[in-house]
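FW: tagging you since you asked about this chain on Friday. Here's the raw sequence from the shared folder, copied in full. Didn't touch anything.
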Amino acid sequence: MQNKIFATTFVLAACLLPLVAQAQQSRAWIGVAAGIASLPPESGLDPAFGRRHSMLTLGVAPEKWRAEVRGDLLWAHWPSYAGPVSLSLNALLPVGSARFSRQPGALLLQPYLLAGVGIYGVGNGRSDAGANAGFGVRIEGERLAVFTEARRHTAYARNLLTFGVGYRP
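HL: got it, structure written out here
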């Protein structure tokens, strides 16, 4: 069931992404990511297996906005009263950038701040609202980007470190 949710969401996002980008005169991207979470000492979880998470992400940067808007579907691979699946809507605010060259298509290094709100425990009958905030760094080319970010999620009461790759159609 878990894999079906991820696959269905990914396929829908991939199909809708080009339409969103064209209709809004904006830049859009889709990404996949994975990472680890901090463990509270009292959790009793095995550090090797109780800290992993996976994420699908869909972002849009409207042409006239400085910020990006991004939706995340996060799957926590640890037991939680809130449940493993969360959906969040986030704002990413770039705090500078640097190009590695003046050539067209040169890599861009871009640090950013991000914050958002979401629903944690989707589909388990005990969902909770929560917030997240943190910072990240993205290196992007014409179509592909890699990113890493650190965020605090209030509903999970943990810090998450995430590494991912994104694609701009």
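FW: The CA atoms of residues 117 and 131 lie 4 Å apart.
HL: agreed, and Residues 2-167 form a domain with the Porin fold (CATH 2.40.160.20).
FW: great, closing this out.
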